[in-house]
Design brief:
Blueprint lengths: L5 H7 L9 E2 L2 E9 L3 E7 L5 E7 L9 H13 L10 E6 L6 E6 L6 H6 L6 H20 L12 E3 L5 E3 L5 E3 L2 E3 L16 H5 L6 H17 L9 H10 L15 H10 L11 H9 L8 H5 L10 H27 L2
Antiparallel strand pairs: 1-2, 2-3, 3-4, 4-6, 5-6, 7-8, 9-10
Helix pairs in contact: 4-6, 4-9, 6-8
């Protein structure tokens, strides 16, 4: 059974497909997750193989739908990507019985980094480094293809049965000489708590350094158990992300953090893209070469002060001074006009 519209679907049943039902040659075991475009299910094939299958919403599967076009582009591209640290896509198409679009992907039995973080277990520094290195490898492939992910976050970092971390949900792709934006609904802007300051201003003109910033925020959260941009509510989080401030050193929260690891997090999350590592390969080299980051520790702990015209504090002080002078002039003019 499948519902013909989202409204009908939400009436009596909250999923597109029922558990235990059939979808093509697959049997639906359970819902794994839900996003803006549709839902992801764990399904079992006729030979007992288990896959994660993304199913597009019924209204989004209709011909002429912009979401259908994005979905097809995503499928065509992702089936060409093969990398040990990127969730593999096997097949895509339209189910003839239901008319729903689907994407068959590698099932990740280890769950997501988000689930691991929510378990409350303190992560070891070696484990954090291994996960970061895995995602840096994925981002190196993303960068080599001329891509920008734009939504690197714990929810999109999955674990295989052997604990390998893999990146899911690529957000932007380039085809040939032109640029085609293949952005899934919900990923156009990204997730504010993990977005770079430049992505907050214009998510369509960022480069790999924005993804590296997001990786730095993820590493910050793995080390400290908290997100550095979190505010009291969504608007505060958004304001913090736009503000582009330098985060406090992770050692203020977890003092036993190795200096090299703390230095890397500080570099990755620098408000200015020009001050971050230039490539994912550089980050991977830092993570995989013992002592490679030692020379960066002092620089990260004592970053050079930006020139006055780029220093927010100086600019705010100058603006306040201008306002004070204007107020003084108005006050003097008022006294002058009232004088006999």
């Amino acid at each position: 059974m499948v519902y013909s519209s989202t409204k009908e679907m939400l009436g009596e049943q909250t999923t597109i497909l029922p558990e235990g039902g059939h979808f093509g040659t697959y049997t639906v075991e359970r819902l794994l997750g839900r996003g803006g475009m549709g839902e992801v299910y764990l399904m079992c094939g006729p030979a007992g193989e288990r896959h994660a299958v993304k199913v597009l919403r019924p209204d989004a599967s209709e011909k002429g739908s912009g979401e259908l076009e994005r979905f097809v582009r995503e499928a065509e591209f992702l089936m060409t990507v093969r990398h040990p640290n990127i969730v593999e896509v096997y097949d895509a198409g339209i189910d003839p019985e239901t008319g729903l679009c689907f994407l068959t992907m590698e099932f990740m039995p280890g769950g997501s980094l988000r689930q691991l973080l929510e378990s409350g277990v303190a992560m070891s520094f070696s484990g954090i480094t291994m996960i970061a290195a895995d995602i840096a490898r994925a981002l190196a492939l993303v960068e080599s293809r001329g891509l920008v992910h734009r939504d690197v976050k714990p929810d999109n970092i999955m674990f295989s049965a052997d604990g390998t971390a893999k990146l899911a949900d690529l957000g932007i792709t380039r085809f040939g000489r032109g640029i085609e934006r293949m952005t899934m609904v919900g990923a156009t802007v990204g997730t504010p708590a993990y977005m770079s300051p430049e992505q907050m201003l214009d998510s369509h003109s960022v480069d790999i350094r924005s993804d590296l910033y997001s990786l730095g925020v993820v590493m910050y959260e793995m080390i400290t158990g908290r997100r550095p941009n979190d505010g009291e509510n969504a608007m505060c989080t958004l304001a913090n992300a736009i503000g582009g401030r330098q985060f406090a050193d992770v050692r203020t929260i977890r003092p036993d953090t190795p200096p090299e690891l703390a230095a890397l997090v500080s570099l990755l999350t620098h408000p200015s893209a020009d001050e971050r590592p230039a490539s994912a390969h550089a980050v991977l080299e830092f993570l995989c070469t013992p002592g490679r980051m030692a020379g960066y520790a002092d620089a990260a702990a004592n970053p050079p002060r930006p020139p006055w015209y780029r220093d927010r504090g100086v600019l705010y002080a100058a603006a306040a001074m201008v306002l004070a002078v204007e107020s003084l002039i108005v006050a003097l003019a008022t006294v002058w006009t009232r004088s006999p």
